[in-house]
C-alpha cells in the first residue's frame, strides 16, 4: 500500500508538470509565432509572400532581402544611430529620474503629491501636441537635425514614466534599512550607493529597458527632428519599405525588422536576470 | 619638445589648409528633396535622376531623402509649422490644394515654361489648379483604375476579352462574372468567383468610378458644396450589391480587404477578375505571379462614358524653402520628358506629359501597358478633389456608411438618405 503511494506521488507530479507545460508551450508558441513568421518572410521572395496559403518554411530561401537592407543606405547605419540615441537617452533618463524618484518617495509633502499627479497627467499628452514647440526649442539651440536633440526629446518623453516606476520601487524599500545603516555609521552617499542601489537593481533594469525600447521603437519624433538621411534611425529607415493601400515590400521590411529586433532582444537577454524581483527577500526581519 | 613643435606645425598646416579650402571654393547650393517613391524600381529611377543632376550641376547639389506615404502628411505639417522644410517635396494633388490655401506653398505659375504647360495633360493641370489660376504643384504621375483578368479562366469559359475599340459595359462584366463563377468540386460552395474588388476603403474608388455613370456626388448649389445621391450615384452601388448578394459573383472577400490583398487569391484562380484595381498593382503581380500565369488588362468599362476620376502625384516648393530658384531648376530637370517617363515606369504609373506617354515603354503590349495607357484619355479631375472637408466627410461619414451598405446591413436607399443628411453638417463647417 505504502509502495503504491510512493509510486503514485511522482506519477501525479509528472502529470501535473505535464499539464502545466502544455499551456506554457502554447503560450510560448503564441508569443514566438510573430517572430517566427517575420523571420520566415525575411527569407522569401515576393512570389512566396503574396500567396493564398503561405508556408512557414520558405520553399526557395533567399538572402536577397538581407543583402538589400544590409547594403549602402540600409539599416546598419540606422541601427547604429538608433543604438547611440537609445542607450544615451535611457541612461540619461535614469540618471535624472533616480534622485528625483528618491526625493519624491522619501519626502512626503503636498508639493510632491502634486508633482506625482502632474507626472501622471503628462503621460496623456499626444506626441503631435508637443512636437512643434519642442522642435522650435531644439532649433533655437541648434539641436534640430542632430542626435543630441533627439536624445533630449526621448529623455523628456520617457522621463515621466521612468520617474513614476522608479518612485514606486523606491517607495517599496523599507525605511528601516536606511535607518539601520545610519545607526551603523554609514553616510548618505554610502546608504544610497551601497544599501539602496543594489536593492533597486530590478527597478533600474526595468526602467532602463523601458526607456531603451521606447527610444528604439520610436518613429514620429525621429522623423520630424532628423532631416539628414545619414542620421536616420532604424524605424524611419524601415518605413521606406511601406507603400500605399497597405502594400509594402514585405521581404526587405521583414529582413530589416529582424535585424532591428536583435538589439532589443539582446538588451532583454542582458537585463532579464536583473528584472527578477525578490532581491529584497531577507533584507528585513519581520 | 621637438615632437610638440612638429605637432603644432602639423595642426597649423591642417587648419590653414582647411580655411584655404573654405574660402577658395564656393560651397554648392543644397536642395533638399523629399520623395515618396517606395517600390524598388521607383526608388532606383528617382536616385538615377538625382545622381544625373548632381553630376551635371556641381553648383546645385540635391540631397535625396525618402519619406513614406503613411507619414508624409504629419511630416510636412510639422515641417511647415517649424519652418524646417525641404526645398522640393513629392505629394499628391488633394492635400496640396489645402496646403496652398494655408499659405505653405510657392506659386509656381510664373515659373512654368510654356512648353511644360502645353505638354502636361490639361486634366492633370486641373487637379492642381487653385482659385485665381495659381499653381502650387507640378503634376507628374497619375493612375487609372483598371481591370486585371486571368487569361486561362477566360479561355476555359469561352469568354473573349473586350478590346480598346469595343469595351465592355458594366452589364457585360456582370454577365462574364456569372459565367466565370463556379463550384469546381461540386460541394455546393463557390470555388471560383467572377470577380473580387478591394472594398476596405471603398469611398474614393466608388466616387472615381461613378463618374462614368454621370455621378459626381458633390454639386455646387447656392455657392456651397452639397451631396446628392441620385440615380447616377446609385448605379454603381446597386451593381456591386447585386454582384455580391444576388448573383453572388463578386466574392465577399472583397469586404475588408484592399486591392493588393486580393492578388494572392487572383493568382490562385479564386477570382477571375479584379476590377477597380490601381494600375500600379501590376508590379506586385509581375513580382508574385508564377512564370506560367497569364494575365491581362481590360479597358475601362463603359457606363454613359468611360471616364474616371484621378488625383495626381506632384512636386511642390514650400514658401519657406531656402533655395527656391535652385529647387525649381531641379524640378524642371526631374520632370523633363525622359526623366518623367523614367520615374513613371519605375512606379508603374503614367507620366502626365503627353510626350512622355508616347514613349515605347508605355505602349508595349507587355504587362498590359498598351491597354492601361489608353485609359489615360478617360481620366478626369473628380469634383470631390476640390471639396473642402472631403477627408473628414470620407472618413467620418461616407466610409462607415459604405461599409454598412456593402455588408448588406442597410439598403441603397437608406445609404443615400443618411449620406445626404450627414453631409451638410460636415461640409457646412468648412464653408
Chain-wise SSE layout:
The complex is a heterodimer of chains A (286) and B (431).
Chain A: H1 2-42, H2 46-49, H3 64-70, H4 75-106, H5 110-122, H6 127-140, H7 147-171, H8 175-183, H9 188-217, H10 220-225, H11 234-238, H12 250-275
Helix pairs in contact in A: 1-12, 3-12, 4-7, 4-9, 4-12, 5-7, 7-9, 8-9, 9-12
Chain B: H1 2-24, E1 29-35, H2 40-56, E2 60-66, H3 72-82, E3 88-92, H4 93-101, H5 114-119, H6 122-126, E4 138-142, E5 145-150, H7 151-157, H8 170-180, E6 193-195, H9 203-210, E7 218-221, E8 224-227, H10 231-246, H11 263-267, E9 271-278, H12 282-288, E10 295-298, E11 308-309, E12 312-316, H13 324-334, H14 337-347, E13 350-351, H15 354-357, H16 360-363, H17 369-374, E14 379-380, H18 390-406, H19 412-428
The number of helical runs of chain B is 19
Number of helices of chain A: 12
Strands of the largest sheet of chain B, in order across it?
2-1-3-12-4-13
Number of strands of chain B: 14
Largest interface: A-B, 32 and 44 residues
Count every beta strand of chain A, where a strand is a DSSP E run of 2 or more residues.
Answer: 0
| DSSP helix fraction of chain A | over 70%
- Could you report the average pLDDT of chain A, rounded to the nearest whole number? 84
Order of helices and strands of chain A: HHHHHHHHHHHH
Spans of chain A of 5+ residues with little confidence (pLDDT < 50)? 278-286
Structural class of chain A: mainly alpha
Note the beta-strand portion of chain A. Answer: under 5%
**Which regions of chain B contain 5 or more consecutive residues with pLDDT less than 50?**
11-24
In quaternary terms, these chains amount to heterodimer
* Protein structure class of chain B: alpha/beta
Strand fraction of chain B: 5-15%
Main sheet summary of chain B: 6 strands, mixed
Helix content of chain B: 40-55%
Overall spatial form of chain A: flat
Radius of gyration of chain A: 25 Å
Taking the alpha carbons of the first and last residues of chain B, their distance comes to 80 Å
